[in-house]
Design brief:
seven-stranded mixed beta sheet, 38% helix, binds 5-O-phosphono-beta-D-ribofuranosylamine
């Protein structure tokens, strides 16, 4: 069975969507490890699902942090998922997992990506720009922040009454579906190659 590792920093609703998709048979894989760069609610979700969870010190220098994370990842891991992971991984790490490490971002990349664009800031930028649609992107991770090849995008309308919070709340539901769909696609493609 394919093995995946999930990296988290926050509430972990995307992690929960993966856990639930495995439970209901939508995804045929096992989460071998959850790694967080800070104490966060996602760790509680991992524990509740009996998944080994580790916290790494986010204040470590970038290469050091990536090396520490590597120690918790089996060499035969099929996919690494950044599900709300806020630390930046170093180029050696992303290169060594090329095409096997993915991220979910709450905008239609390449719009509203890059350093500092996370959380409500993304939705505030969408509203400030008077965009009529937003969405989320699942993409491969390379050494450019939010810059890897796009795997999947989902769109939602922006309503005149929206504020950053309502937009975030509506989009996160769609993110969960997009992430599960992208994982399913990648795992089935890698099975076909093997
Ligand atoms: C999501 O909006 C995701 O797109 C972004 O960080 C947030 C994580 O939310 N990268 P959660 O921790 O999965 O609830």
């Amino acid at each position: 069975m394919p093995k995946i590792v999930v990296l988290v920093s926050g509430s972990g609703t995307n992690l929960q969507a993966i856990i639930d998709a495995i439970k209901t048979g939508v995804l045929n894989c096992k989460i071998s490890t959850v790694i967080a760069d800070r104490d966060c609610y996602a760790i509680e979700r991992a524990k509740a699902a009996n998944i080994p969870a580790y916290i790494v010190e986010r204040k470590l220098e970038r290469a050091n942090l990536s090396q520490t994370i590597s120690k918790y990842i089996d060499k035969d891991c099929d996919l690494i998922i950044l599900a709300g992971f806020l630390s930046i991984l170093d180029g050696n790490f992303t290169k060594s997992w090329e095409n096997k490490i993915i991220n979910i971002h709450p905008s239609l990349l390449p719009k509203y990506g890059g350093a500092g664009m996370w959380g409500l800031k993304v939705h505030q930028a969408v509203l400030a720009n008077k965009d009529t649609e937003s969405g989320c992107t699942v993409h491969f991770v390379n050494d450019e922040i939010d810059g890897g090849k796009i795997i999947h995008q989902e769109r939602i309308p922006v309503y005149p009454a929206d504020d950053a919070q309502t937009l975030q709340k509506r989009l996160i539901q769609v993110e969960h579906q997009a992430l599960v769909l992208a994982i399913k696609k990648l795992l089935s493609e890698s099975k076909n190659i093997c």
